[in-house]
Amino acid sequence: MLTKQNVVNTGKQGAVNMKRNLTITILLVLTAMLLAEDIIIESYVDKTKIGLQDQLKYTIEFSGEKAGEIATPDIPEIDNFRNMGVSSSSSSSYSIVNGKMTSKIRKSFAYILQPERTGNYIIPPITLKVKGKTFTTQPIFIKVVAGTTEPLPKTSRQLSRNDTSGKLEDNLFVLAEVDKKNIYKGEPITVEFSLYTRYDPYDINDLSFSSEPVFNGFWNEISFRAKRIGFSSAMLNEQRYHKMPLIRIVLIPTRTGKLEITSLEMLVDVRIQSTSFFDFGSTKRYSIKSKPIYINVKELPYENHPEGFSGAVGKYTLSSSVSDTELKIGDSFTYNLSIKGTGNLKQFEVPALPEIKNLRFLDPEISTKINSDKKTGTKSIKYLVIAQEKGVFNIPPISFSYFDPYQKKYIIKQTREYTLNVQEGDMTFISSSAAQSSVEREGDDIGFIITNIKLKDNPIYFDEFGYWLIWLLFILLLLVSYIYANERQKLSGNLDYQRQKQANKILRKYMKTAADHAGKGHIEFYSAAQLGLSSYLADKLKIPRGSSTDQLLTEVQKKTDSSAISEKISSLLEKCDQSRFMPGGFSSNNIENDFIFMKEIIADISKTKI
Amino acid sequence: MKKLVLILLIISFSLLLIGELKIDKVFQNALNEYETKNYENALRDFLSIENEGLINADLFYNIGNCYFRIHQIGRSILYYKKALEIESDHASARKNLEFALTLTKDKQETSSEDVIRSFWEKLFDSLSINLLAVIALMIFGLIILLTCFMIVFYRNRERTVPIFITTVLIFFLLIFLLLGFLKWRAYHFLNEGVILTPSAIGYSGPSEDFTRVFTIHEGMIFEIEREEGNWSLIKLPNGLGGWVHKEDFELIKL
Predict the structure, then answer these.
(1) Which of A58, A60, B218, B246 could form a disulfide with B74 if both were Cys (CB 3.0 to 4.6 A apart)?
(2) Are both B183 and B197 inside the same structural domain?
(3) Number of domains in chain B
(4) How many CB atoms lie within 10 A of CB B23?
(5) What are the tens digits of pLDDT across the range A529-568?
(6) A449, A453, A461 ranked by CB distance to B133: nearest
(7) With an 8 Å Cβ cutoff, is B155 touching chain A?
(8) CATH number, domain containing residue B78
(9) CATH number of the structural domain spanning residue B218
(10) Is the domain of B174 the same as that of B206?
């Protein structure tokens, strides 16, 4: 495509270039075709009739100059066969034809296929894409029969008997054995997978697990796993075999019902001994598997189950010990509890210790030691206890219950009772934070009655008249302050009003000085009286201060409509004028009389409209 | 004439005093009976004080305690609720009520799960109606004083700051008045009841012929929505409604 595009482009440029470019283009296309055509694909199998225990070698071979670069192709799943793996190999050859050297490389991929059942099957055409080109292989017909089609290895001479069958499955097999098939939930069982063979143990070259069993519904722990090949003789169904234990697993069911132990699949390499001098013998690989086993798991009986039962199943013994029984306050001792036996040691809870007042149990240290058989062991519980008060304390017996699947009943074991004697100590307090505990509630109750009640009604203020009266008073206060403020406003805004308001104040002030002078008989009385009276009148009559006496008098006359007051005033003011010109002409007696006279005048004025 | 009034006054006052002294004596007696664990006698005495017409949160609290001691949980709950009705911040009554409610057969939620709601409820409960009244009054007084001050002294001056403060105070006043109003309304108009019989059946209508809707037990607190003859339509805290016979419960009324 690209080259053609090139041709078109250059064609536009010029005819001379075009011819040269065309040749180059043709050459390039040719080489590409050659390269592609160079790879040839072939597929074949090593045999078309095989046994179920044999393995089929299915080879896909590529040949061509560039075949060496081909990566392992992924082939799809083939029905009824299991792909066990692939290996590749390559070879190359060179040939010179007409002085031209060509190299040829073969690359083959050999797939090991394991038949899954007997019958006639087809390895379907497989389509592969290599270097951008797709290839399709030819279908191949395969017949799968039971057993094996290969020559079998010779059975061990010492085990050979007349009735020995020649079949492979009788001479080489994996057996799964359990010690019990009907069990209770939580009851441990052991499953052992062993390899049985009647072939010579020396001919067994290699073993490998291709699929390990799955234990759904079981808690499992491997207690033994073979590390090297080692056979011993064993009897099975009154026949002698070479036996090799492969794997031993302890299973503890966590569910009830029919539980399956799936099969163990393994590959065994067996050497086939030479039959003649020129035959060196060969090694055959066989795939064998054990039969699945079904275990019936029952629920523990509910009847008579003891209180505090925490799921222990098996057979146990219980023992306890106390490090010290004579203590001082603040001393600590350990209370040991150990549960020993066979069963699901890891699957149950330790019995709870009762709470004892004044003895503080710190969090226990629990350790579970399981023996290598994974079934027996010891669970030990260590409580560190601190004596907090003096006295004699009893640690009551602790009971531990378990279900015995052999006797099919619950068994309760009890520890002995301990008596502790705590003496007064040196009161050394333990300062570690682990020894401290927060105060805990020990009981719950209602509070005590209230004894100091003032036996009065609880008034609801919102319903009380007095409460709202206070609100009203506050509102009144607001009104009062508003009125007060308004008054002040008036006062400061109106000068005459202010003068009138202040007139009395000024008069009082002068009257006071006047009274002082009068009391002492001083002549200054008159000047004070004159000043006070005239200012007072001026302010009251709203005429400017310092107006003449006549003016004052006429105003007074206008306001009062009678001359009596104005005459009195004029006579007093006259006396005041006189006192200024002849200060010695007034005795203290006169002065006193005039003071009384002045008071009379003021009293009169207050009675008028002024 | 004047003398006669005076004599009458003195006589009535002394009678009142004698009455009070008598109540005091009965009260002391009740306390002694309670302390010597004669709860029935203590209860009788406390109830006689209640019958005098005394409305007092502490007294109701004590009556609740007596009922609790003689294992009448329903009545003890009723009296704790009464005490709380008067003083919603009565801590002892609230504590005892909560404890008593844990002993009832029916689960009753004492506090809301919702954070905001429970905060609101706690605030509402911690302020008693009288405290709210006093707070509202104090804020109002402050507002009045501030306003007076402004009217009298700040007449011709800048008044931004006092006006701002007053506005804030008015806002608070409104809140407390609203709270107070809610409390006051609850105090006077909320119809709550407590089941006193061991169990009571709620029907879909005011008769036993109707469908059974629920069964509640002693100590259950609920609201009363309607009344029809001897039957009351109640609403449980979980929203269930049904008609219950009036003999099965008592109102939390003072």
Answers:
(1) B218
(2) no
(3) 3
(4) 15
(5) 788 878 887 777 777 777 777 777 777 777 776 677 778 8
(6) A461
(7) yes
(8) 1.25.40.10
(9) 2.30.30.40
(10) no
Distance CA A216, CA A233 (A): 33
The full length of chain A comes to 610
Q: Are residues B39 and B88 in the same domain?
A: yes
What Cα–Cα distance (Å) separates residue A60 from each residue in A87, A106, A231, A277, A461?
11, 10, 40, 34, 104
Task: Find tokens 């002693």 and name the residue.
Answer: B218
Residues 323-362 of A with CB under 8 A from B: none
Q: Mind telling me how many Å the CA of A540 is from chain B's nearest CA?
A: 28
> What does B162-223 look like in DSSP terms, one character per residue?
HHHHHHHHHHHHHHHHHHHHHHHHHHHH--EEEE-SSEEEEESSSSTTSPEEEEEETT-EEE
What is the spatial order of strands in the sheet that A40-45 belongs to?
A40-45, A56-64, A100-115, A81-97
Token pair in block for residue A59: 């080879």
A393-414 tens-digit pLDDT:
888 888 888 888 888 888 888 8
Range of the domain at B178: 127-188
- How crowded is residue B52: how many other Cβ atoms within 10 Å of its Cβ? 12
Question: Do B173 and B241 share a domain, yes or no?
Answer: no
A447 contacts B92? CB cut-off 8 A: yes
Are residue B16 and residue B81 in the same domain, yes or no?
yes
More confident residue, B113 or A46: A46
pLDDT tier for residue A155 given thresholds of 50, 70 and 90:
low
Chain A neighbors of B86, CB-CB under 8 A = 458
Residues B172 and B230 in one domain: no
Q: How far is CA A449 from CA A52, B30, B95, in A?
A: 91, 11, 12
Cβ contact (<8 Å) for A462 and B129?
Answer: yes
Closest CA to B71 of B246, B235, B219: B219
- Indicate if the pLDDT at residue B187 is higher than 90: no
Q: Are residues B6 and B98 in the same domain?
A: yes
Contacts A457 to B, Cβ<8 Å: 54-56
ipTM at complex level: 0.73
- DSSP H/E element including B60: helix B57-69
Q: Is the distance from CB of B55 to CB of A455 less than 8 angstroms? A: no
**Residue with structure tokens 């009832």?**
B104
A431-469 as b/e: b if 16+ CB within 10 A: eeeeeeeeeeeeeeebeebbeebeeeebebbbeeeebee
Task: Indicate if B176 and B202 belong to the same structural domain.
Answer: no
Alpha carbon distance A13, B70 (integer Å): 118
Across A25-34, A235-244, B190-199, least confident range? A25-34
- For the CA atoms of B163, B169, B174, B177, the dihedral, rounded to the nearest 10 degrees, stands at -140
